[in-house]
Amino acid sequence: MAERVHKRTRDDHASEVAEDYVEAIAKAIDASGVCRSMDLVNHFAVTHATVNNTVARMQRDGLVTTKPYQPIELTTAGKRLATASRKRHEIVRSFLEAIGVSPQTAEIDSEGIEHHVSKETLAAMKRIIDHGYPS
Fold first, then answer.
1. Locate the HTH dtxR-type domain: which residues (predicted)?
2. What is the rounded distance in angstroms from the CA atom of residue 27 to the CA atom of residue 114?
């Protein structure tokens, strides 16, 4: 049991960066029509080298396409991951607000929780948002 718990946490951490990046890329594209490396440098407050390395891994994993000095685009798989990440984030944030957490804190906390919440827990959060607390 303990090994399964730790494996899940390790797996969650491995996908966390990709999820954050596809979400940020999707937001940039929604806002201005394109996403450039500099958008990600500014969004994550990291170096250009960090963004380039991360984007290269994401390209290898089939989540984005890009060429030197060109915008970053999400693949179909990247778009699906961005949509799922946004949905999870929204459910967690809304749940935290529903239980009395301030909007500012809910936004900050949901950014970490969204990557580690199980499907079962996420479904329970959604039920509470949609139907209130069970009696």
1. 14-75
2. 17
